[in-house]
Specification:
Largest sheet: 7 strands, mixed
Helix content: 10-25%
Number of strands: 15
Order of helices and strands: EEEEEEEHEHEHEHEHEHEHEHE
Number of helices: 8
Shape: globular
Strand content: 25-35%
Oligomer: single chain
Length: about 350
């Protein structure tokens, strides 16, 4: 295979907008032909995709949604998401053949990417490249921003994280422990609960599916209340947390995975606690914080090399397995960050 060759390009096509729980059949494996060269005069970049990221926010893109969050997927076109890629050809002066990058790419073997401001060059290759789908990519930066920038943590504070074994949650807990906080996480299986306590160093963890009353469960683990809640779930979990927050607590709203597949969303009943307890609750979009990526990268890379941060990935091999891997996020079948291996360079 040489630059300029025409090759087959497998891709995952988004069939049409989805109502309710998504199915594998909403995504179609197909192929076309692609020239391994950027169009003449173009400043685009042609990449070979190596690793693709499955992320809960992608469910929202399966809806026909108004502008303001992220754009909808286009029916009949490839799914888009974060990935790690290798530059095959470039018409842009900032990228050259052989560069490794992470950013938004297509769910396909090869992608032509423009504009290129959605790509970040990979600086460190002494860690697994797949880490740039999670730990050193969007998920890691999300954990860093949500915890350090939104929540302004202090040593000794009480921190609670829902969906704590996921791509973001597992890192928030470790950042909190490195700050000297008391950390509790919840997850959806006993296997994941054990992972939180033995691998990620959480002080306590519980299986929310085994708790008949989330308010009672949180009072058991936080008898003095919660200072910081990192919100990944929404719905009844958020309602229970609001009852257990301490005065001047902070809530970083990262995601609400319990709501993504519902046609009628759960209401939240306990919002008055925001007033009575002077709680600051703030949602955030990671694209607003890309300017912090360099300092996040340096800090987190040092933590990895020093053995102070651990990361668990759930890896599947082959582009054709990507739809099932994405659907699995919403049933909790993944353990850790869900990664699809398309190619290994």
């Amino acid at each position: 295979m040489a630059e300029g060759d025409e090759v087959s390009n497998k891709h995952i096509i988004f069939r049409d907008y989805v109502t309710g729980f998504p199915k594998e059949s909403d995504m179609i494996l197909s192929s076309n032909k692609i020239q391994l060269k950027v169009p003449e005069g173009s400043k685009s970049v042609l990449v070979k995709n190596l690793y693709l990221s499955c992320d809960p926010y992608m469910r929202g893109r399966m809806n026909k949604i108004p502008p303001g969050y992220v754009s909808s997927f286009t029916p009949g076109s490839p799914i888009l998401g974060f990935g790690v890629s290798k530059v095959i050809d470039s018409g842009h002066p900032d990228f050259k053949e052989g560069d490794l990058v992470w950013g938004i790419t297509g769910w396909e073997e090869f992608s032509i990417i423009w504009p290129t401001d959605i790509l970040i060059k990979i600086k460190y290759t002494d860690v697994p490249l797949s880490y740039y789908t999670g730990l050193l990519g969007m998920a890691g930066l999300t954990a860093y921003v949500g915890f350090h920038e939104i929540c302004s943590p202090k040593k000794g504070e009480y921190v609670y994280i829902s969906a704590a074994s996921g791509a973001v949650g597992q890192l928030v807990g470790q950042f909190a422990k490195l700050m000297g906080c008391y950390v509790v996480g919840s997850a959806g299986s006993n296997e994941k609960v054990n992972l939180l306590k033995t691998k990620f160093g959480y002080d306590e963890a519980f299986n929310y599916k085994e708790e008949p009353d989330l308010n009672v469960a949180l009072k058991r683990y936080f008898p003095e209340g919660i200072d910081i809640y990192f919100e990944n779930v929404g719905g009844p979990m958020l309602d229970a947390v609001l009852l257990n927050m301490r005065l001047k607590g902070r809530i970083a709203v990262c995601g609400m995975i319990s709501q993504y597949n519902l046609e009628k969303l759960d209401g939240v009943q306990n919002l008055f606690n925001l007033i009575s307890k002077r709680i600051r609750m703030e949602g955030f979009m990671i694209f607003d914080y890309y300017h912090l990526y360099p300092q996040f990268l340096e800090l987190t890379h040092q933590y990895i090399k020093a053995g102070k941060i651990f990361y668990v990935e759930d890896t599947v091999e082959g582009l054709e397995k990507a739809p099932a891997a994405l659907i699995g996020l919403f049933t909790g079948s993944n353990v850790g960050k869900q990664v699809v291996v398309v190619a290994r360079e």
